[in-house]
Specification:
Number of strands: 6
Number of helices: 9
Strand order of the largest sheet: 2-3-4-5-1-6
Radius of gyration: 33 Å
Helix content: 55-70%
Structural class: alpha+beta
Strand content: 5-15%
Largest sheet: 6 strands, antiparallel
Order of helices and strands: EHHHHHHHEEEEHEH
Distance between the termini: 42 Å
Length: 370
């Protein structure tokens, strides 16, 4: 990139973890608490203090992620409960605020026990529904000699136990496949025949549960991908905000560029009040920042070119000063390529080129008309 610089961007671990914590907590992207302490310790060269602060941030961030996972499971079981019409208690989701990592871990342990119990209860409820669907009697009817259809021997006890293994969020077609197999018990005249049917029920439940686990894993994967995308976005925004603040502190006006801003990056235009003919085009994308000093109109004289060199020198000094400010904010910019002042003519901005082209077209059109 002519008259420009390229630098690789890396966020300090304290920034990454704190942004993740703030996102889970629903707060802004500003650094606070132990994350800020870790950055301050880094700036002051206090390695031990930084390590301790960073370890605390990591522990807290990990605990918050665990809470988010339990909240997702609560939501999934609530949806299953509504679908089955079951009266099963579920723990309330936790909206973390000031809890310590130890308190968050304790809540997760308690939630796990309650959620496991709720899933078992929902499976038992589903088993009762399947039983009632097949035999047209409540589940307890299998335990009493009511004169209705009753599996031979102890098959009714085995059936209740086997059906309770069916995961409660099995799909309708999977549930139906299990019910169809259970229905075969009506024709089982001997214990051996009943055992054969029960084995088929086991196989169909195993197949249904495998599909349920695949769907659950796909949902976890989608949540992880969405979480990673959200994290990437807050990190991108943090980098852009840090760059904007750094250059505004140095007297630059910073505005969004005309280019499309994507989740992977963004475009900025930097200008100064005493730079009527110059601006800096900057793009932040894929963990890299690229900046180019450009002219707003073509250079027409040697004085223009001397001014270009002066502006390049100013820009280079400003970039180095901005790097120091970014470092304080936990954003490291390692220069991977730089073009020294005066090596090449400054490029003309795209807007200036388009204006010049349109002007040229109009002039040639008037010449043809004369």
């Amino acid at each position: 990139m002519s008259s420009g610089v390229e630098a690789d961007i890396a966020l300090d671990a304290a920034v990454v973890l704190t942004l993740g914590m703030n996102r889970v907590l629903g707060r802004g992207a500003g650094l606070a608490g132990r994350g800020a302490e870790a950055l301050a310790a880094l700036a002051e060269g206090r390695a031990e203090a930084r390590a301790a602060a960073l370890a605390e941030v990591e522990t807290h961030e990990r605990a918050l992620r665990e809470v988010a996972g339990r909240n997702a499971r609560i939501a999934a079981l609530a949806e299953t409960r509504a679908k089955l019409g079951a009266d099963v208690a579920l723990p309330e989701p936790l909206r973390p605020d000031e809890e310590s990592p130890a308190e968050l871990a304790a809540w997760c342990g308690s939630a796990d026990s309650a959620l496991d119990a709720a899933e078992r209860a929902l499976s038992e409820h589903l088993a009762a529904q399947v039983t009632e669907q097949v035999f047209a009697v409540p589940a307890e009817g299998l335990h009493r000699d009511t004169g209705r259809i009753r599996p031979p021997g102890d098959a009714h006890k085995d059936l209740e136990r086997i059906l309770a293994r069916l995961l409660p969020d099995a799909a309708d077609d999977e549930r139906q496949a299990v019910a169809d197999a259970v229905r075969l018990l009506a024709d089982a005249g001997t214990s051996d025949e009943a055992e054969g049917v029960l084995q088929e029920v086991r196989l169909r439940i195993g197949d249904a549960n495998r599909r349920v686990e695949e769907r659950r894993e796909a949902q976890r994967r989608r949540r992880a991908e969405a979480d990673a995308a959200a994290q990437a976005e807050v990190e991108r925004r943090y980098v852009l905000d840090s760059i904007t603040s750094a250059f505004e502190d140095l007297g630059y006006e910073v505005r969004a560029g005309f280019e499309t801003v994507t989740a992977a990056g963004g475009a900025l235009v930097l200008s100064r009040g005493n730079w009527p003919d110059h601006s800096v085009r900057m793009r932040v994308e894929d963990a890299q920042v690229r900046a180019s000093l450009t002219r707003e109109r073509p250079a027409e004289s040697e004085d223009d070119r001397r001014l270009d060199v002066e502006r390049e020198e100013e820009w280079c000094a400003a970039f180095e000063a901005a790097r120091e400010r970014l470092e304080d904010a936990g954003v490291r910019a390692a220069v991977s390529w730089r073009l020294d002042p005066g090596i090449r003519e400054l490029p003309v901005s795209e807007a200036a080129r388009q204006t010049r082209t349109r002007t040229g077209h109009r002039e040639r059109s008037r010449e043809r008309d004369q």
